[in-house]
Specification:
Two copies of one chain form a homodimer.
Chain A: H1 6-15, H2 17-22, H3 34-51, H4 64-71, H5 75-87, E1 91-94, E2 98-101, E3 119-120, H6 124-134, H7 153-166, H8 181-191, E4 204-206, H9 208-220, E5 226-231, H10 235-244, E6 247-254, E7 258-259, H11 261-269, E8 273-278, H12 292-304, E9 309-312, E10 337-342, E11 354-357, H13 362-372, H14 378-390, H15 392-418, E12 424-425, E13 433-437, H16 444-451, E14 459-460, E15 473-477, H17 484-504
Helix pairs in contact in A: 3-5, 4-5, 7-14, 8-14, 9-10, 9-13, 15-17, 16-17
């Protein structure tokens, strides 16, 4: 289905008038009820289009004024109709954006219950197989990044040309291990928006967010150390553990509220945990969001036990509401939090510029940068600094957030529509990914092997655990603006899951997401 | 001293005629000896200018034809004069470049004799101090990279603008973990020049040479493993060992011939060595060059013992002679060699594009790239690929090699002229760095602390050993085209060394480069 627009909405509304007229009538209204009949009729009309699928979850409704003008009714009639639809849970107001068809609610997957013992990680082979399988395939729901056309390509290109013109030897200089001061200053300034109080010297530039994670981890761990993580957690992180000889301690995590602080408290008490890596804002893969109060408790808890917190805030800017959620770093008073973020997901994946605010681990992080990639291309840094300075960033991010919100609504709608009974999924308040629990019996890796042949890819659940758990889970990313092809792929994926469920009913396997018992 | 040019040479030659005429004459020649007298006189004249310092090591002489025309003598007279000077060891022919004042010979530092037991590495702190000390200071002899003006900035800038224009979303795409095929193909093609037979799939693109080393090391080692290296070796490599929990086994190394294969043979026989990292071509810091025969034996030896060889060939293109030395990889028939190189030093330090040809470790290296920096900026790769394709690279590298040869000759000359008696240094056949052994009693770290205050930096010897050895050694890099300031800095550095030697004579310390005994 193509993106909904006002004109076609009115066309549809008009074409459906006759049908609505043929619907069973209410009791004939009194004259004083005329207005109430009008708004109720309008509400019914729109409700009918929603139930018929003409209007889908996440579709934007025309504005109150537009509808007033086109239908020749009063503003209050339209307002009442929308209020009625809101009360019936069919539409919702979004701040500064207008009214949208409301998403159907799904029960989220249950809180995870991983093993209480640390595990050596062996996702390497699985990840390799996954990469081979999805390499060069159509994107589908695979990549945790927005589509290329969503980024400010023209602006960046212009800024980069200017940067090269202004500094003719920009490509011939290393640009320093810590990164260009002009960019570090912009990042420090930007952090003020979430309550960060830093100066340029507190910031270390990296080659994207993944290098930032690398450096942070190496700064605070030794091979053999135990590191606490959410469960499920980002597979790249687990893979890092494997390559660094670290053990993962998977902590029970609520797919909406984030990591269990009670469980984390128990885990760090015995002194065996060397560090903790979390994504308090829109975790990958679940999209969970910790409350400010939980973040504060988290920072205090880890500080008390001298366990460094590596906070991956790479999706923090993709919030749906009015305010950016604060990262845990905002509550850090001792420098115990290594804050990791990146402009890769925000401004330009191909520029590969991320950063760390490493708190008290600054010198360790800088020296690790020195030996990991030595420096980050200066032309990228200067271009990005100028983009941030220009104010173009704020405008761009508002657009990105609108896109994400829309795409997530479409995904939610499609999951409700096309996926087998018993499927549960998260409804994150930000980001552009969703963690889906299929009914026990569906093997997401096998599902991928089938679906990828039809150009439908995604990340299967077992990638997100050190112990090959979450076999009937999958992560769906919606980085592409929604289109008919996306809708068709999602529908087909649901069908394939249903087929596997039907075929596998003879030999179902356990729901491994809940196999682990919390001691 | 400014760079010598033909015109001022002739001015000097002319101005010295009278002086030459007043020199004691030879016995009066017969008429048939007229030509031989002429060429001998010319040779003497030039020799006199060399011994007086008017002509310095590395200065280019006028061409045969120029000298013939200006002096009104026959071509054979000039040829004979030059031959005479060559025989006397005063000048040397360089292929396709002409005749140059020959460098004074220094005895190289002795072969190293490090400990035979592996050591955990602790250079971290030393490196950090070094970085703090030299940060933001004038370059001096510190950085192992050519100066920004030596690189093809204008061409690259033009190619980058074109790349961005041709691919408008280049900054918004990851570009793939393995790297752009168009660049990998160019690299494979380029490797044919040294006998490499590869295709694009054999190549992995990295964020510079240092990431390439990282990935190669992680692909073949586990924390706790013992890795054999040259002694002295590149401090970044030792720092990598420290961060990865690897132990360094320093192998005796000849500063001209490279690593001792006899010692390496002994080391790998007991099966305790997990991998070996060497720089057979122009090693950092000594500049040593292994012979083809030694490289062949090396590859065979390590293959027989199933010890992977990581070959760092980052300086291989900076050869002084007519032919590029082949890397050990050219003799690898089993895929046991992980070949590491980079266009960082060759084309553009700020582009950060390196590569590995990882042989049989391809999948391990690719997955490590995936989790280290995910991908290398596509715009850099495309720009570089087009530069290589254009043929601009060959022209550029000829110029770079000429610059390096000149700078190294100047350095050699300055060391002979300004440094204390008993100083020994290497005379590499390529690269732009030199390993200097000062007389016992000079502490290079203390020397740096003093010299850096005067804008003279270099890398002190202890950085190049896992055991804080080489205290009276230093590495000098000459990446800047030589100028009066460089000459003055080198002179001053020699003075400071002499001062320390005079002051420290009361409490000399041992020559730690030779403290270790080979068992």
């Amino acid at each position: 289905m193509v993106h909904f627009n006002t004109n076609c909405f009115f066309a549809m509304v008009r074409s459906r008038r006759k049908i609505t007229a043929r619907l069973p009538c209410r009791s004939k209204p009194m004259k004083s009820d005329r207005r109430s009949t009008l708004y109720a009729a309008l509400a019914d009309e729109i409700a009918g289009m929603i139930s018929a699928g003409t209007l889908r979850s996440g579709d934007k409704l025309p504005s109150l004024r537009e509808l007033r003008d086109r239908r020749g009714v009063s503003l209050s009639t339209v307002t009442e109709a929308f209020r009625m639809l809101e009360d019936r849970g069919l539409i919702e107001a979004r701040p500064q954006s207008g009214f949208f068809v409301r998403q159907k609610l799904s029960e989220p997957p249950p809180r995870s219950r991983p093993s209480t013992t640390p595990a050596a990680v062996t996702v390497n082979r699985r990840l390799w197989d996954y990469l081979q399988l999805t390499r060069g395939r159509q994107q589908g729901f695979c990549y945790a990044v927005m589509a290329p056309q969503c980024f400010p390509n023209v602006q960046l290109q212009k800024l980069m040309n200017e940067a090269l013109r202004d500094s003719p030897t920009l490509l011939s200089k290393y640009g320093g291990t810590r990164g260009l001061e002009v960019l570090r200053r912009q990042i420090a300034r930007h952090a003020m928006e979430w309550g960060g109080r830093f100066n340029a010297d507190d910031v270390q530039i990296t080659a994207g967010g993944i290098e930032a994670l690398n450096l942070a981890l190496r700064a605070v761990t030794q091979p053999g150390d135990v590191v606490a993580v959410e469960s499920p957690t980002y597979f790249g992180l687990l893979q890092l553990f494997e390559s660094m000889g670290l053990k993962a301690l998977e902590i029970p995590t609520d797919p909406e509220q984030g990591v269990s602080l009670t469980a984390l408290d128990l885990a760090v008490r015995d002194g065996a945990v060397a560090a903790c890596v979390l994504m308090p804002n829109f975790s990958n893969p679940t999209g969970s969001l910790m409350s400010d109060e939980a973040k504060q408790r988290l920072v205090k808890l880890l500080d008390e036990h001298s366990v460094p917190l590596i906070e991956d805030d790479i999706y923090g800017e993709f919030y749906q509401g009015r305010e950016r959620p604060r990262p845990a770093k905002a509550f850090d008073e001792t420098g115990n939090v290594l804050y990791v973020a990146s402009y890769t997901k925000l401004v330009a994946p191909g520029m590969r510029v991320g950063h760390i605010i490493p708190g008290r681990y600054r010198s360790q992080v800088e020296i690790l940068k020195y030996i990991n990639t030595f420096s980050t291309p200066a032309v990228m840094q200067l271009t990005l600094a100028r983009f941030l300075e220009s104010g173009g960033h704020d405008h761009h991010m508002r657009r990105m957030r609108r896109l994400c919100t829309d795409q997530m609504a479409r995904l939610n709608d499609g999951l409700a529509r096309y996926f087998p009974e018993g499927t549960r999924w998260t409804r994150p308040k930000g980001g552009y990914m969703c963690w889906v629990k299929l009914p026990a019996g569906v093997d997401s890796t096998r599902l991928l092997e089938t679906s990828v042949e039809e150009g439908i890819s995604f990340a299967p659940g077992p990638l997100f655990s050190a112990r090959n758990a979450y076999r009937n889970y999958l992560r769906l990313c919606v980085g592409e603006p929604w289109c008919e092809a996306t809708e068709a792929k999602l529908k087909r994926l649901g069908e394939l899951a249903r087929q596997q469920l039907d075929n596998g009913a003879k030999a179902p396997f356990a729901d491994t997401g809940n196999l682990f018992e919390l001691g």
